[in-house]
Amino acid sequence: MRRRLTPDEINRIAADPTHCTRTDLVPVIDPTRPFVPEEWTQLWYTPVYASLHREHRLRYNQLFGIRINEYVMMLESDLIERIWPPLRRHPSVRGDPALVRALDEMIAEERRHHAGFARLNRICRPDLFPEGRDRFFSALPMWGEAMFRFTGLVAGWLAFGLWYQMALEESAQALARAMVHTPETATLGPLDPGFVSVHREHMKDEARHLHVDALLIERTIEAAPGWRRRLDAGLFRAMLIGVVRPTRAGAGEKVIRQLVRDMPELGDREEEMIRAVLALGRDRRYQESLFNRRLMPATFAVFDRTEELDHLGERMLGYDRRAP
Predict the structure, then answer these.
(1) What's the pLDDT tens digit per position in 135-194?
(2) Considering only CA atoms, which of 131, 88, 127 is closest in space to residue 106?
(3) Which sign, positive or negative, has the C-alpha torsion 282, 145, 216, 106?
(4) Which of 78, 132, 188, 211 would bridge with 5, disulfide CB 3.0–4.6 Å?
(5) Other C-beta atoms lying within 10 Å of the C-beta of residue 229
(6) What is the pLDDT of residue 1?
């Protein structure tokens, strides 16, 4: 993000269809192709991965790609839908008609993204996503539901959820760029072009959304008194505990259990794979892959200028604090 756009500039770009995401794509999916770069999956970071046969790694990759789509959908429905209404009423936001317009357009776009990714997942696996069911791997556990509910309830006063949202939106952009620029995977051959096309389109809107996120952080968190920023920072660090550690009954485990249902010959390795994923909570290479400056330069620049996030690297291992 070389220069932060103003709300008026964001709205002018959003009015140009060439800079907006097409969410009506109905791609043809090749079931013999991987969906995402292998290093964006969890098992890639474990010794187990290399010991799996190619067909098992391929199916795992496809299931994990679907799980990533659901993660984007979770951000856009479970988080954004909760924090946007109170943020829209924030005194430093509601008095700026251009920013309110940009915010409203962003909400509408995120809803369209949700529908587009749900359609893609249904094309990939209609058996897992019959009409009326959009989520399979990412149903929130009790702690996750409580976390998002609390984040929404306090968003008008404590907007720490914006830091998480900006990081995930920039990560989605990074994934799309990786898919477009390096379509050949490490061991599974070229990515499926239909799957890539949806993520490439998604990148268009997300480029603008990062500017909206940065403006909201500036107007709400950075303009708040120091004691409130410290509270925001503490809540953000607490929020990350459940984000960076794979858990039993989490989406990563659900992917493995579905892999075994699809390929029963892996039944005797199911618990081995699950234990390997759970161990990633202590694996620095995996932890740094989740949040790092290469993927999230704009978000990390926001972290850098926030004094209250000085110790963020203790929880977010990929964060290398630098002078703003």
Answers:
(1) 999 877 677 777 778 888 888 888 999 999 999 999 999 999 999 999 999 999 999 999
(2) 88
(3) positive
(4) 211
(5) 19
(6) 62
| Structural domain containing residue 130 | 32-279
Q: The domain that contains 95 carries what CATH number?
A: 1.10.620.20
CB 215 within 8 A of CB 4: yes
Residue 16 φ then ψ, to 5°: -100, 110
Within-domain flag for 11: no
Summarize the confidence of residues 87-115 as an average pLDDT: 93
Q: Where are the beta strands (DSSP E) in the chain?
A: none
Question: Is 212 among the domain residues?
Answer: yes
Residue type (1 letter), 29: I
Beta-carbon contacts of residue 41 (< 8 Å; ≥ 6 apart): 60, 61, 64
Q: How many domains does the chain have?
A: 1
Does a structural domain hold residue 251?
yes
Q: Which amino acid is at 224?
A: A
219-267, pLDDT tens digit by residue? 999 999 999 999 999 999 998 988 888 988 889 999 999 999 999 999 9
Interatomic CA distance for residues 260 and 112, integer angstroms: 32
- Tell me whether residue 189 is in a domain: yes
Q: Which two tokens stand for residue 198?
A: 């949806």
| Distance (Å, whole) CA 284 – CA 289 | 9
